[in-house]
Amino acid sequence: MVTLTIDQMKVTVPEGTTIMEAAASIHIDIPKLCYLKGINEISACRVCVVEMEGKDKLITSCNNVVEEGMVIYTNSPKVRLNRRKTVSMLLSQHDGQCITCSRSMNCSLQKIANDFNILDNPFKKEFVHREWDKTFPLIRDANKCIKCMRCIQICDKVQGLNVWDVSGTGARTTVDVSRNRDIRVADCSLCGQCITHCPVGALRERDDTSMLFSALEDENKIVVAQIAPAVRAAWAEQLGLSREEAPVEKIVTAFRRMGIDYVFDTTFSADLTIMEEGSEFVKRLQDGDLEEYPMFTSCCPGWVRFIKTQFPDMIGRLSTAKSPQQMFGAVMKTYFAKKLGVDPERIFTLSIMPCLAKKAEREMDLFYEEYAGHDIDCVLTTRELDRMLRAEHLNPQFLEKGEFDSPFETGTGAGVIFGATGGVMEAALRSAYFLVTGENPDADAFREIRGVKRQGWTEAEFDVAGNVIRVAVVSGLGNTGKLMEAIRRKEVKYEFVEVMACPGGCAGGGGQPIHDGQELAEERGSSLYFLDRNTDIRFSHDNPDIQNLYEEFFEKPLSHRAHQLLHTEHQV
Questions:
Q1: Which letter, b or e, does each residue of 35-45 get, where b requires 16 or more Cβ atoms within 10 Å of its Cβ?
Q2: Which of 11, 286, 432, 502 places its Cα 20 to 30 Å from the Cα of 280?
Q3: Cα(479)–Cα(212) distance, rounded to whole angstroms?
């Protein structure tokens, strides 16, 4: 242990503790812009400087380790003057149009500038000019970038994709797509982790709310919305409400007030995905197709983009099942359109997703007998949902709970846990067990796959009617790359693998609310498992709405019609 003095207070901390961590242990918050614990500790911004007795120069608190007898001042006149100058210099190259910024009131630079009472800036404004494709789901504004390097570090160290890099030198130093590439050819998975870890508005999702408002204004359109499981665990965070105060049914009421015609829960189409993906897994297992390589889940579009660019030889190992989002759109524009007796072209399908890659997924053109075009017409992130509610002056605190529409109002616990890492695997195994044995297992029989237990991924073995099934669950693309290499080298052997591009799964998705310096995926995932435990129906195959859909429309899982509508061959 080491004892030091911080702002005239004695503090004892373990050896190896940084000055910033030591200050935090006695509730002293040192301002920071670039720091992300364990990810980015390179002191790019130098806002976290402190004064150390006996040293003339200020030192950074984020990467300097405490020493016995140190005397530190975190807010001396010298420190305040230096920080104020540093932040003013950052502001001189920052487009301070806070009113029209997606991060207004949730911006670390804005908060620090306000804390330092910076009302005037003595430095000349100098902006950089970078062209950007505004049709791409991920938008970068170079004039808001503060060169904190967080996007580089999260993409390199956690996701392993190296999409971003430093460009230029000296005063012209900035961050841009690495190797002077266009973002569309940079192998970006659209996981959105660079957005959720950016302290300012330099990175954001493409705003598609105008597409929805245009559809609502079109009297010929029937707007049908779906709300993803992970959204319910996070949507109220930036609206100042607890999860108890903001059940997902309040979004249903808000949507009806906005004029949306039908509102469904994506847990229904998650159950549909389980039926198709689980059936496909059982068939591949029985056909001997899994003896060399496993079947991979295909519900995460960020992962699908990743495998196409990084492991194209493994594309054939993906399940052919579409994601719940796309299955929902396919059912709405066929079965539901027939139920309503309307032309499928009149159906406008809206998705509320925790994910950026879903925006790109919806842009795929898909064709089938009853309709042509897109399965999904518009995807909004959880953040866009929050902004839209504020724009419509809808305060969820005072909304009553609404009911999802029929005939797809029933969701199961299996569908809910889709939003947490390991949830897809657990839900699929519940139904795979039933498909093989004709009996339901204990609903928690496969909970062993929750959490991370080996080299960044979880693995387990289960006995299903005498068949030993080896499975793995991984989230985060850096971990995924390691797992894929291990599978290639045949160091590990699995029959079924679930992959989620975002650390923690959809709960930690790139479209979720941003809390600078906090990782909430695990907490949100726990909420989804709580809902599963307290749901009446915990098996996808027991969902009565799913059973009716197969009886009336698909006949059975993997039928010819189901395959045409609910599957894709994942062409490169």
A1: bbeeebbbbbb
A2: 502
A3: 36
Answer yes or no: pTM beyond 0.85. Answer: yes
As given in the structure block, the two tokens for residue 193 are 């982790």
Question: Is 176 in a helix, a strand, or coil?
Answer: strand
Q: How many CB atoms lie within 10 A of CB 416?
A: 31
Q: Are strands 2-6 and 9-13 parallel, antiparallel or unpaired?
A: antiparallel
What are φ and ψ of residue 375, in 5° steps?
A: -65, -45
Residues 6+ away with beta carbon under 8 Å from 353: 228, 231, 325, 379, 380, 381, 382, 509, 511
For residue 503, give both structure tokens. Answer: 């650390």
Residues for the chain: how many in total?
Answer: 572
pLDDT band at 572 (very low <50, low <70, confident <90, very high): very low
Q: What is the mean pLDDT of residues 312-329?
A: 96
Gap between the Cα atoms of 295 and 481, Å rounded:
16
Strand partners, 6: 9, 72
Written as one letter, the residue type at 500 is M
Q: What is the mean pLDDT of residues 35-55?
A: 88
- Quick check: 13 and 79 in contact, CB under 8 A? no
Helix, coil or strand: residue 4: strand
Q: What's residue 454's pLDDT? A: 57
Helices and strands, counts by H and E, the chain: 20, 19
